[in-house]
Structure formats: structure tokens, C-alpha cells
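Q: Is it fine to ask for two folds in a single conversation?
A: Yes, each is treated on its own. Send the first.
Q: Here.
A: Result:
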Amino acid sequence: MKIKEIVSALERFAPLPLQDGFDNAGLQIGLTDAETTGALLCLDVTEAVLDEAIASGCNLVISHHPLIFKGYKSITGKDYVERCILKAIKNDIVIYSAHTNLDNAPGGVNYKIAEKIGLKNVRILEPKENCLIKLVTFVPTAQAEEVRNALFTAGCGYIGDYDSCSYNTEGEGTFRAQEGSKPFCGNIGELHHEAEVRIETILPEYKKREVIRTLLLTHPYEEPAYDLYPLYNSWAQVGAGIIGELKEAESELEFLKRIKKTFEVGCLKHNKLTGRLIQKVALCGGAGAFLIPQAIGSGADVFITGEIKYHDYFGRETDILLAEIGHYESEQYTKEIFYSIIRDLFPNFALQFSKVNTNPIKYL
């Protein structure tokens, strides 16, 4: 099996266009045409992780955090990133990372955290904005269903828990074919009237090229007419953070102790306990403190994340319980997502969880 088959599976689950602007998710090092001997799954790429991959015979390392975030004018081994780059190249190891694209994807990092906590009715805390567009096209009535289904297959028509969504209006189109054209219907030089269906559907902007290519291939007309409109709708299935509910309410202390145990937290930081019951839970893996206002606005009883700054704690105790569990601790189960994606498609492929604890923060 080629490495690019694994990469393709990961990117179907967490498309790279879903990553945030600062990020560098995707292929970090190596050639994906190579045959894979196995994949090592980890949170961070370090020299110890690469040594583990070499020892276990894996030529593919899949991480959550990208190894490379900035450009390099030289690679001389002066820091751990450069040493990792050199070691990976020397040993023909491919490194691939799925970071904020996996954070933002349905079923991604925050969904895994919610699963570990036992949340129900899970939904996105801060949906992405300005990512959806509307496609309108006009198709002869007899071919409308074929074109519509092709657009759905290409990625159009998803709204919430529904697929194949479109609006269809019957009407009449007119055109006159000029010399040199090859009209599907009508005659050159004559004004033609054709019964048509106006098809309207929705799609993520990053799928625009693929969808238009599909439209041009499927539409019977030599020159299909179509319009694209930007939408201000929120994309409720994609975005930052998660909110959901516990089956039964818990006391603050009971809940925090359970979180500490579940995520093996060496030191769980929190603001003042006020005696509230915890049932509505908001969370974001990693550095998610930017979502505290959204968590409060959603009416959550608690907000869990990996990192919170000192001043973010002030004045919040009456609004919400804040729980800081550590960046590594909050995202450690991301490896399980990689495993499920790959194992479901390639059940006989050699997968290994890294045994290296890459958390740079230690506790007394």
C-alpha cells in the first residue's frame, strides 16, 4: 500500500482547507508514492518518536502537531526540529500532520474529548463563518436528475444532518447557437426555447473547483450557465470547540476529579468552586481559552481546555467553572482518531501507538 492512500483517507476525514490560517497541517516531509511499511501514531514528532519509528520498522509517522511551522533558510541540526527533519530524511520516513483541520472537522479532536467525558447532544461551539457558497445552474428537464445527483456526489447539498438538499424550479431557457458551436439541442442561427430546471444547492467553498468540474462534465450543454453566491451562513458542522450535556448532573468537585482521572492530569487548574451542578459542558482541546466568551454565552456550566492564561481566570467564577487540564493531556487521545480512520479502511495495515510521552511539561 502506498503512503498516499493513507494520506488520502486522512484528508477525506479532515480536509486541509478546514485548518486555521496560522497552521501548517498536511505532508511535512517525504514522498507519498513510497510503499508504506507501517505507521506510528503520535501527538508530537520528536527525535525519540522518530527513533521509535525506525526501531519498529515504520516509514510513516502521523502526528497531530505539525513538526514544521516556519520556513527554514538552512537545516543544520541546531534545534530539535531541524534534527528531526534530518533524521526523517536520512531514514526515508514520511511525516504527516493533521492539526486544526482535525480540530475543526466533524468527529475530530473535540468530539473525541466529548466521547471520553460522556457528553450527549454534541454540537460545535463556534461554527466556521464565510465558508459556504450557493451554486445555481440551469439544466434541461430530462437531464436534471442526473446532473443533480452528480453534484451531490461531488459534495453539494449537505445541511446539518441532511444530504441531497436542493431547490428546483421549472422554467424556460432561451439561446441562439452561433456558427462554430455544437448545440445539444436547437439549430445554429435559430432562437431556441428549452424546458429547464433551475437547481440551487449549497457546498463548502473549498469544494468549488471539484463541483464545477463535475458540473461541466455532466451537464449536456456545450456552455452550461451557472452562478456562485457567497453565503453568510454559519457552517454548524465545522468549527472550534464542542458543547454537550452529561446524562446526569455532577457536583463541581466530583466532575473535576473524574476529568483529572480520565485525562491523567498531573495538576488540574480551576477557578473558585461555587457549588453549581455540572451538566452542560463546553470544551476545546489544546489552547482553547479564546472560546471562554462563547462557552459563557452558550450557558455552559464548565469550560474545559488545555491552556488558560492567568488573567483569563479573573471575574469568571460566577459565570462558569474553568478547568485547565494541560495541552498534551487534552489532546492525547487524538491518536485514537487516526487509528479508527485508517483501521476502518485498511484493516490489515500495520498501525502502532507511540509509547513516547512527548509532553514537555513535568509536574512535581
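Q: Second one now.
A: Result:
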Amino acid sequence: MGRGIAQVAALAGLRTVLTDLSAEALAKASASIASSLEKGVEKGKTPREAAEAARSLLSTSTDLAAAAAAADLVVEAVFEDLALKEDLFRRLDAAAPPAAILASNTSSLPLTRIAAATRRPGKVIGMHFFNPVPVMPLLELVRTAETSGETLAAALAVGKRLGKETIVVRDSPGFATSRLGLAIGLEAMRMYEEGVASARDIDRAMELGYRHPMGPLRLTDLVGLDVRLAIADHLAKELGTDRFAPPGILRRLVAKGKLGRKSGEGFYRWEGEQALEKQP
């Protein structure tokens, strides 16, 4: 998701540095962003001048400290692992200027715990984007008890500049969107497991019947089945309820390495960006 966030930031005229441990991953991300920008131009959604300006504002680096050294805002988008995020925020706190805001793209983990890893909890906020970032209009802002009013105001301003519609929620398990979205997603998985309907027809039921832009199983493939499993386990534990207990099919697919689009197969079989229905 980091590449999508970087793309919309650069398109909004913000100088953006995309970071990763892997130079190869950064090269792939840059190519993906360039392709996405070109498609926007071809479809008439993005002026060529804007796409070229975005490319000039975007750079990459494998040096996290150097990338954060002059940042006004850092948006973290690593895997949903609390220990990993806590460690990263400690490093960002040491590297970024004292006035910089540190934001997490977490979709469910306790932001208060993440903020506690820093010496600036008032400048930590959740900025939860949605896949695909250039298309999805929502930005969920998550504030802790210590997030300052100035930090929230700055995040709201950034969201507006990125062209996003923002909602503000307090730090609680799953926030608003993950609790709602995961509840639908897990039920869709149970229906698929029970043979109620095919993956495509379950998705079409939500797309055509409830005007969802994307069905829950295809969305799960885009998000990553491993990510959804981690969120479900977290919510089931934190909320003390079996409403979010992961279905067996989700655990089995993850155990087999079938994680969705990134692995080539999940609830669908993927050929590039195209989702193909699996044979029973």
C-alpha cells in the first residue's frame, strides 16, 4: 500500500520519498507507480503535466534515517505486526525532526501502543488508507488520548490536499472501518466455504445489491489473506468475542501460502491485475 500512498502524495504536489529495505522492491514500486500514472493519463483522469510533476517529486531510498531526516510527515505502511511497528517508530522518532508528525497506516493495531514507542505521542496519529489508494476516497484518521489538536488538524489538511474524504475515530480495536469491513469479509468467507455461492457471485451480491465498489473476497485478495487473518485474530482477542474468529478456509489458504494477488492465488486466481475465478 505504500506505493499507492506515495503516488497520491506526489500527485498532490508533495515531495515524497518512498522507502523500503529492498532496492528491488523499490524498483518494482517505482515501475508500478509510473504505469499507474500513465494509465491515468491515457484514461483522461490525470493531466500529463500533473503525472510528470508527480514523477519529479517522487524519489526512493533504502536509508530510512536519511529519508526521514527532513520530513514534515512520515507515513508508515509496514506489515500489521505490533512489535515491528513499535521498533520502526522508535527509529523514526530518532531520525525525524522534532516537529514531524509520525503517522501509521495500521488498520487495526493499538495506536496508543505504537505512539508509546516514541517521545512525541502528541504527534502520532493513524492515517488509514484503503486499497487501491489512488481510487478509494476514504482516509480514516485515528487519534489517541494524547494526539494533539494541532496534529489532527494537520492530518485533516493533508487528507484534503490528497483529495480524500476523512473520518475521525478514537483508538479502539479495529477502529471503525476494519471492524465493519472484516465482519462482512469473514461472513463472505464462511458462505464461500459452505458452498452458498461462488466467490464471484458473493462479490457481485455486494457490488450490485449494496453498491460496494469491490466485493469482500476480491478485496481480501487485494489486502492479503495473511493481513486479514492477523487482523481477525487481533480483534477476536482484543474484543473477547468469536464474532471475529477466522474461518477455517482463511487459515488453510494462508498456511498454503495462498495470500491473494501478491502470491497469485487466494479466493481468486490472479494473472497480473486480473482476477480469475478458481475452478471448484
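Q: Anything structural to flag on that second result?
A: Two points. The two ends are 30 Å apart (CA to CA). The first strand starts at residue 16 and ends at 19.
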